[in-house]
Structures are given as structure tokens and as C-alpha cells.
Write a structure and sequence with these properties.
Length: about 100
């Protein structure tokens, strides 16, 4: 039985922070990183929603779906991230508007 290498660690045995991004196609990388653009736009709220979208897309990128289904699902996560930010930011703005 052949053992698969642990991709979460580098050659020195330290955790590899970039392991989740290795082996993805360029369009998967772009769609995975797209939600985190909310961080500079929306501060903490945008960062939390963007990070959730990033990890959701990284998870989808590793699923055994076909390319069209994976592309549509990842685009849906990006769109949902931005819509969730607009909704939460709008609610926070209306709460503190006075």
C-alpha cells in the first residue's frame, strides 16, 4: 500500500500555509480569492464574509464535480458573498443611522 504525502506540511515538517491553493487551475484560484476582496472594502464585516467565501470556494474547488458545475457553484459563492456583505452592511447602517 502506497502512502500519500502530507501536503499540509513542507519538507521541514512545518505547516504549509499555501497548501490549499496548490494544484488548482488559474480560474479556480481567481474565483477562490475573489470574495476576500471584501476585506479592504468592508473592514471586519467584509473580511469575515470574504473569508467564509474563500474557504467555501476552496472546498468546492477540490470536489469531484464537472468543470461547468464547479464553475457555476464557485461563481454562486462569489455572488452570494457580495450580496451577503451588502445585506449585512445595509442592516448595520440602518441600525446606527441616527
Amino acid at each position: 500500500m502506497q502512502q500519500t504525502p502530507d501536503l499540509e506540511k513542507n519538507s521541514l515538517g512545518k505547516p504549509d500555509p499555501w497548501a490549499k491553493f496548490r494544484g488548482l487551475a488559474w480560474w479556480q484560484l481567481v474565483l477562490s480569492i475573489a470574495p476576500i476582496i471584501l476585506l479592504p472594502i468592508g473592514g471586519a464585516i467584509g473580511g469575515v464574509i470574504g473569508a467564509a467565501g474563500l474557504f467555501a470556494n476552496l472546498s468546492l474547488a477540490r470536489k469531484p464535480f464537472g468543470t461547468p458545475a464547479k464553475l457555476l457553484a464557485m461563481l454562486g459563492v462569489v455572488l452570494a458573498s457580495y450580496l451577503a456583505y451588502l445585506l449585512v452592511a445595509g442592516l448595520v447602517h440602518s441600525l446606527f443611522k441616527n
